[in-house]
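Please produce the structure of this protein holding magnesium ion.
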Amino acid sequence: MTTTSLQPFTSATQNPITIRRIPAMQGMVINDLSIYRPDGTPLIEPFSLILQPGDRLMVSGPSGCGKSSILRAAHGLWPWGSGTIGIGESLRKLIIAQKPHLPLTNLKGIVSFPDFSHQHDDEAVATALKKAGLGNLVPDMNDSAKDGSYWERLSGGEKQRISFARALLLKPDILMLDEVTASLDIKAQDELYSAVLDTLPQAIIVSISHRMELAKYHNRHASIQNLKLSLQDAASLDPDGHVSCPVCHATHPMRPL
Ligand SMILES: Nc1ncnc2c1ncn2[C@@H]1O[C@H](COP(=O)(O)OP(=O)(O)O)[C@@H](O)[C@H]1O
Ligand SMILES: [Mg+2]
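Below is the modeled complex.
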């Protein structure tokens, strides 16, 4: 018998995850969200969470515990589970995966994606590329002979910089980053997160990462262990503002609100 990676809905998905766009709301509300595997086995037990503008939540936990599935659920790409995700009607959200999508268009189009490149002027795209540490690519950005297949030759870290340029250009209200610094060193990671915080101070940022040096850029922290998501907010940190990591068991500084 052959199997496919995506399986049909099971009884566990009779009440799939509902995503609602809510008028006049400025944030994001997760209400009683549970996440299952496609075969119906639980991944994360029900949890609730409110994210306000300017909140920056870091999510950590062992590989395979369901971190990316939360982001997929928030984008309607993971129906297996139950609960509701409410998002302010006017808010723009952008999800950035570990491996960026490089569409078959020139670099300006790649950075502008999913917008059309004509929606952004050259200067804005050049600024975003420079802030992301890719100023050397600006002269090539309108070269239509250099499309996504050409830019595949960039290193993993440079491709992740393209993702950051996209976030810095599109300025979403909700930015979800899934292991987006995995191929970058700590200095580059610091430069890019600082650029995001400077450019998007009021954005809701959800970062999935096991790199706890990133904790200091977040005011909230959620860890997933044994099917449970537990929230550790800045208010509940130790007096020096440290959070303990469920993966490496060390303590790390977090920036308070
Ligand atoms: N399309 C899919 N079909 C079936 N199982 C999947 C699919 N995508 C992910 N999974 C499984 O769901 C679990 C959670 O995956 P994921 O959310 O990607 O974990 P992580 O915490 O590492 O981001 C894993 O066991 C993974 O193998
Ligand atoms: Mg993942």
